[in-house]
Automatic annotation (TrEMBL):
The keyword Cell membrane applies. The gene is ftsY. One of its GO terms (molecular function) is GTPase activity. InterPro entries: AAA+_ATPase, P-loop_NTPase, Signal_recog_particl_SRP54_hlx, SR_rcpt_FtsY, SRP/SRP_N, SRP54_GTPase_dom, SRP54_N_sf. Its main location: membrane. Belongs to the GTP-binding SRP family. FtsY subfamily. Residues 1-119 are annotated as: Disordered. Part of the signal recognition particle protein translocation system, which is composed of SRP and FtsY. This is Signal recognition particle receptor FtsY.
Length: 415
C-alpha cells in the first residue's frame, strides 16, 4: 500500500544525506590536505650537515700531533715513554667511532619525521569523519526537492499538495546545523513527516461518538453516501453496516438508488447476508421518499442509524445532482460521505470537489486503498476539499475497512 510514495520519500532522504555529507567531506578532505602540508612544512628538519671528516674534538687533534712527533722521534720517543704510532691510530679510530654514534643518521631522521606526520594525519582522520558544524543551504537540497515535486505530481498528488510539502521541507531544513551524516537523515525524515502530517491534519469526525449521541437523543444517525458509478459505494455501505454491527449498533439501509434496478438487487443481497433491514421501492421511485421511509422505520424500531445509498452519477450530470440535493433537503443527513476510488488518483480529487460544491461533504471513504501503489489520492483529497478521510476500503470482505488515522499513513510512507 502506497509503495510508490514510500519509495519517493525514502529516496529523497538518502539523496539529501548523500549530497550534504559528500560536499562537506570533500571540503574537509581539502582542508585536511592543507593542514598536513602546513604541518610538514613547519616541522621539516633543518638541513643536516654531513659529519665532518675532521677529528670531532681536541683529543683527535692532540693524537694527530703525537703521531707526527712519534714519526720524528722514532725509537727515542718510544724509550722516553710516548705511545707508539699504532696505539695512537687505534685511539683515533675509537674516538671518531664514538663521535659518529652521537650523531643521528640522516636516513633515521627522515623516517622519524615521516612517522610523526603519519601519526598526525591519523589523528585528524577521526575528526574529519564528522561533519563539522555544516549548515544546510538551499543549494544543497533545491535540485533534489525539485525532483521530488515532479515525482509526486507523477504519482497523482495534487499540485497544491506537492508544493506545500516541498516548501515545508525547505523551511525546516535550510539553516539547520549538522555534525554528522545521521543528523541529515534524521532532520530530512522529520521534515517530511511534519509536512505530510500538516497535509493530513484536518479535524475528523468520530462516527461512533456521533452514533452514541444520536442514540441518546432518540434520533437515528443519518449518513448519506454519494459518488460516481463504479467506486464501490454499495459494497462500502455493506462494510460500514458491518463496522457498526461490531460496535453494537443496529443500522437500517435505504436503497435510494432507484435509477438502476441492479443497484437495488445488489444492496438487498448484502443486507440479507448481514441480517440488516433494507427499505426499498421499485425501480424509478422517488429516491427521497425511500430515504424518508428508512428514517421513519429507524425511529419506530429504535435503530441507531440509517445508511442511505444514492445513485452513482457523474459530477457533471445536473439532473441527478439535483435529485441528490432533494434527498438532503428531505432527511437532513448528519453526515454526507463521498466514496471515491483511490486508484483514480486526481480524478477522484476533482470529483470530490464537485460533490462538495453541490451538496457539501463531511467526510471521505477511499475504496481499493490496498491496491493503490501510488497513494496520491489518499494524500491529496482531504487537503484539497478540507474534509477528513474517515475510512479506507482494504479488501473484498465485509470486514475489510479500517478507520483512517493520519499518523498511520505517515508511518506507511515515511516509516
Amino acid at each position: 500500500m502506497f509503495e510508490s510514495l514510500k519509495k519517493k520519500f525514502t529516496g529523497t532522504i538518502g539523496k539529501i544525506s548523500d549530497k550534504v555529507t559528500a560536499e562537506e567531506e570533500l571540503e574537509a578532505a581539502s582542508e585536511e590536505t592543507e593542514v598536513v602540508k602546513s604541518t610538514e612544512k613547519s616541522e621539516s628538519p633543518k638541513s643536516v650537515e654531513k659529519p665532518d671528516t675532521k677529528p670531532v674534538d681536541d683529543r683527535s687533534s692532540e693524537t694527530e700531533s703525537k703521531v707526527e712527533d712519534g714519526k720524528k722521534s722514532g725509537m727515542l720517543g718510544f724509550l722516553r715513554g710516548k705511545p707508539n704510532e699504532t696505539d695512537e691510530i687505534k685511539d683515533e679510530k675509537s674516538i671518531v667511532k664514538e663521535s659518529s654514534e652521537l650523531e643521528t643518521p640522516i636516513s633515521d631522521e627522515t623516517e622519524l619525521i615521516e612517522s610523526e606526520t603519519s601519526e598526525k594525519s591519523d589523528d585528524k582522520s577521526g575528526i574529519f569523519s564528522f561533519v563539522r558544524n555544516k549548515t544546510i543551504s538551499e543549494k544543497d537540497i533545491d535540485d533534489i526537492l525539485f525532483e521530488l515535486e515532479l515525482a509526486l505530481l507523477e504519482g497523482d498528488v495534487a499540485m497544491d499538495v506537492a508544493e506545500k510539502i516541498i516548501n515545508s521541507v525547505k523551511d525546516d531544513l535550510i539553516g539547520r546545523k549538522i555534525r554528522r551524516r545521521s543528523d541529515v537523515t534524521d532532520f530530512t525524515r522529520d521534515a517530511l513527516k511534519k509536512a505530510i502530517s500538516n497535509i493530513l491534519d484536518i479535524e475528523s469526525k468520530d462516527v461512533i461518538s456521533l452514533a452514541e449521541n444520536a442514540k441518546k437523543s432518540g434520533e437515528p444517525l443519518k449518513i448519506m453516501f454519494v459518488g460516481i458509478n463504479g467506486t464501490g459505494k454499495t459494497t462500502t455501505i455493506a462494510k460500514i453496516s458491518t463496522y457498526f454491527l461490531e460496535k453494537g449498533y443496529t443500522p437500517v439501509i435505504a436503497a435510494s438508488d432507484t435509477f438502476r434496478a441492479g443497484a437495488i438487487e445488489q444492496l438487498t443481497h448484502h443486507a440479507d447476508k448481514l441480517g440488516v433491514k433494507i427499505i426499498k421501492h421499485k425501480k424509478g421511485a422517488d429516491p427521497a421518499a425511500v430515504a424518508f421511509d428508512a428514517v421513519e422505520h429507524a425511529k419506530a424500531k429504535g435503530k441507531e442509524l440509517v445508511l442511505v445509498d444514492t445513485a452513482g452519477r457523474m459530477q457533471t450530470n445536473i439532473n441527478l445532482m439535483d435529485e441528490m440535493k432533494k434527498i438532503k433537503r428531505v432527511i437532513h443527513p448528519d453526515l454526507i460521505i463521498y466514496v471515491g476510488d483511490a486508484l483514480t488518483g486526481n480524478d477522484s480529487v476533482e470529483q470530490a470537489q464537485k460533490f462538495n460544491e453541490a451538496v457539501g461533504i463531511d467526510g471521505i471513504i477511499l475504496t481499493k486503498a490496498d491496491a493503490d501503489a501510488k497513494g496520491g489520492a489518499a494524500l491529496s483529497i482531504g487537503y484539497v476539499i478540507q474534509k477528513p478521510i474517515l475510512f479506507l476500503g482494504v479488501g473484498q470482505s465485509y470486514s475489510d475497512i479500517i478507520e483512517f488515522k493520519p499518523e498511520w499513513m505517515v508511518e506507511q510512507i515515511i516509516g
